[in-house]
Amino acid sequence: MAATTIRTDPDVVVRTFFDALTTGATATAVSLLSDDVWWANIGLPTVRGKHAVARAIASMHRRLRFGVDIHHLAVSAPADPTDAAAPIVVLTERTDYLGFGPLRVGFWVCGRFEVRDGRVCGWQDYFSKSDMAKGAVRGLVEMVTGRGR
Question: pLDDT for 11-44, tens place per residue?
Fold first, then answer.
């Protein structure tokens, strides 16, 4: 019987991470983080360290539903091409969905992930607050009218 091989390709790591986030599998998502991981949402404080990011993900899973449609995912060069141990950069263009009760808010996000040794060691998301507000309005209309589901 062949041994199971864990894929550490940067794109597979990021897709598996998102699969865990969308299914609420906090432990699986956290298992894909390095101990020195950082997570930055533009305009919010950066969360640093595996335990702190794990708490943030667990809090997200307790408070809301998360969904994602990945439109593009691109594996780039190492973050520092002169350093053989530098993480590989993975870029995502996606629509994130945050669900609160019957309300579902969808908005565009561009994400930059750094993957080293099969683990996410850096995660930065860029999004437009105005697009998020538009998503909230769309979500409210869909919730009230029953359309869009």
Answer: 999 999 999 999 999 999 999 999 999 999 988 8
d(CA 22, CA 61): 9
Q: Which of 9, 19, 125, 131 is catalytic?
A: 125
C-alpha 54/C-alpha 109 separation (Å) is 21
- Which residue segments constitute the domains of the chain, with CATH numbers given? 10-145 (3.10.450.50)
Indicate the pairing of strand 47-48 with strand 65-78.
Answer: unpaired
Question: With contact defined as beta carbons under 8 Å apart, do 129 and 105 qualify?
Answer: no
Coil/strand/helix, residue 28:
helix
Whether 83 sits among the annotated catalytic residues: the reply is no
- Active site annotation includes 96: yes
Contact of 79 with 87, CB cutoff 8 Å: yes
